[in-house]
Amino acid sequence: MNDLAPAILAALVIAVMGGALSVFVVLKRLAFIGQGISHAAFGGVGIALVLGVHGATTMGTIGQLSIVVAFSIAAALWIAALSRSHHGRIDTAIGVVLSASMALGFVLFTLAESKHGHDDHGHAAHGSEDQHHLIEDILFGNILSTDWTKAAIAITAAAAILFITWFNHRRFIFWAFDEPVTDAYGLSSKRTTNTFLVLLALAVVMAMQIAGVVLAAAMLVLPGAAALNLTSKLRPVFIYSIVIGVAGAALGMLIGINAGYPAGPTIVLTQSILYLITLIIKTLAPRLRS
Amino acid sequence: MPPAVEIDHVSYTYPATGFDAQAAPAIDQVNFSIAQNTKLGILGPNGGGKSTLIKLILGILQPTKGSVRVFGQSPAQARQQGLIGYLPQRIEADLDWPISVRQVVALGRACRTKPWKKLSADDNTAIDRAIELVDLQSLSNRPIGALSGGQLQRVMIARAIAGNPRLLVLDEPTVGVDIAGQQRFGNLIDTLHKELDLTVILVSHDMRAIAAVADRVACLSRSLHFHDTPDGLTPAVLAQVFAHDVAGVFGDIHIDAHLAESCDDPAHAHQHQHDCGCTDNDNFGGSGGDES
Questions:
Q1: What is the pLDDT of residue A41?
Q2: A17 and A203 in contact (C-beta within 8 Å)?
Q3: Residue B292 contacts A, CB cutoff 8 Å
Q4: Residue A73: inside a domain
Q5: Chain A contact for B16, CB < 8 A?
Q6: Alpha-carbon distance B142 to nearest alpha carbon in chain A (angstroms)
């Protein structure tokens, strides 16, 4: 169980972060941008592999994460800039960046395999099976492989994201509620958008440790969506969202570890079930009251 | 006492976008000032540059030529100090938000409140006062999505005045509002003007909306055509500004476009401008701008 301690701790802290950010993601309708960023991160992983930076050592882990974070932030800001040049059509911008980054990622994976895939004697160092496992881990996450180095990075990043979100909470609330007027009130819309997208990119990369490229964005959507089914008051939404996010992560880890299911998808599935339960409560509550 | 707003020979051209786009000035050589504590209505056709002028006053756009000063400072400085309150043309806020009327009004002080501090006693007093002035005390804790259109607009006005501004800018606030509603809106703005010593700028293409609020009128159709009291606003000036039949804009008076020809004489137009002692522009030609 001690081997799993860093994984469990990292998952819970990332769940707190996801719960807090997901309220903004849902209310500002940025769920799809989270998907765009997470898929774009795949390109970042490809770059790290081509450069020979991988998570076999502590420095390698930090180096790989740094490259992926930098690439994801660049992708997020690129989405924002493209969206502005397409008259606010963010779906077009996400479509462009997501496709380009995924394509880049797969091409770089192949390049990395041909570049680093043979040892000094010309023998294959990594089989295609290893490569498939690596891609699978990146796509769907492998939280159980989290060691204390990865956990420390995840906890530090999540704490920084939570602090910056709290520090800017009034600005983010105004921006997410009524962005078109924020410039007139002295709050730069562009600066606020970019700040939030940088945080979102960092959060997506952290969530990828749990749920991978494909499911990371779900951890930044489901808790907020579920909380909004339960209340129409601002402060309780944030509290419920964090509670649902953490509950989903804890239950998902518990079920996944005991039943032998992959932890990341099980966490996302548990959060999805919690969302459905809140949806049922929302639907039935008025009938029960009357 | 400096003017509330000084617009000094201001032109603005939106950047051309795309290969086939051509840049045309949205406003051209506009030159006038607005004294403190006046209520100015800016009248003009759609695409005449009214919203562009507002963005220049708010500091969201920077003039291509000329300069804008608000209470003797740059618009950005005035905005940062909370001197400007703004009501947008369309309320684009997300009404599905779990946020109360009071919390929305409090956003009007968001740029002044340190993130690590709770709202101060001064903040709370200003927010309560704003809610009281628009007569929404009984709805203070109601979710924003549960309001009628009129109530929602009053919330947004309360948000605009919660920061204790000295200038209130209203962009087409009465589009789709009937005459009685426009009058009630005019009465509310009159109350705010008196209670808060506000300078008010109201932009509209509707003469009745302007008449319900303003004690000064400026006519804008890319360039400035008139700046004076509403009494001096003749059908001929209106025909020049709107460049076509303006029946429905100016009550029952029916004016045909050809009447505009009588306004082409700059000396005729100058006569109105100098009556109010304002420094107006010297460009009276042109009509029908291409505001994007």
A1: 85
A2: yes
A3: no
A4: yes
A5: no
A6: 10
Chain A residues near residue B104 by CB distance under 8 angstroms = 177
Task: Quote the mean pLDDT of chain B.
Answer: 78
Distance CA A54, CA A62 (A): 9
Which residue of B80, B98, B111 is in closest CB contact with A234? B98
What single DSSP character describes residue B292?
A: -
Q: With an 8 Å Cβ cutoff, is B113 touching chain A?
A: yes
* Interface check A191 vs B, CB under 8 A: no
CB contact under 8 A, B98 and A167: no
Burial of residue B239, with CB atoms counted within 10 A of its CB: 0-12 exposed, 13-18 middle, 19 or more buried: buried
The mean pLDDT of chain A is: 86
The pLDDT of residue B53: 92
Task: With respect to residue A288, please indicate whether it lies within any of the assigned structural domains.
Answer: no
Q: How many CB pairs under 8 A join A and B?
A: 72
Tens of pLDDT, residues A2-39:
678 888 999 999 999 999 999 999 999 888 888 888 88
Superfamily of domain B1-14+27-83+167-292: P-loop containing nucleotide triphosphate hydrolases (3.40.50.300)
| Domain that includes residue A40, residue range | 2-283
pLDDT at B286 over 50: no
- Residues in A closer than 8 angstroms to B96, CB to CB, are 27
A39: CATH: 1.10.3470.10
Are the Cβ atoms of A184 and B79 closer than 8 angstroms? yes
Compute the nearest-CA separation of B201 from chain A (Å): 14
The separation between the first and the last C-alpha atoms of chain B, rounded to the nearest angstrom, is 35
Burial zone of B242 (CB within 10 Å; 0-12 exposed, 13-18 middle, 19+ buried): buried
Closest CA to B99 of A204, A23, A46: A23
Q: What is the 8-class DSSP label of residue A71?
A: H
> Out of A109-118, B168-177, B182-191, which region has the weakest mean confidence (pLDDT)?
A109-118
Domain ranges within chain B, ordered by starting residue: 1-14+27-83+167-292, 93-164
- pLDDT for res B12: 93
The answer to the question of residue A289 being in a domain is: no
Has residue A290 been placed in a domain? no
Q: How many domains does chain A have?
A: 1
Answer yes or no: is the ipTM higher than 0.90.
Answer: no
Taking only the tens place, the pLDDT of each residue in B226-268 is 666 666 666 666 666 666 545 454 444 333 332 333 333 333 3
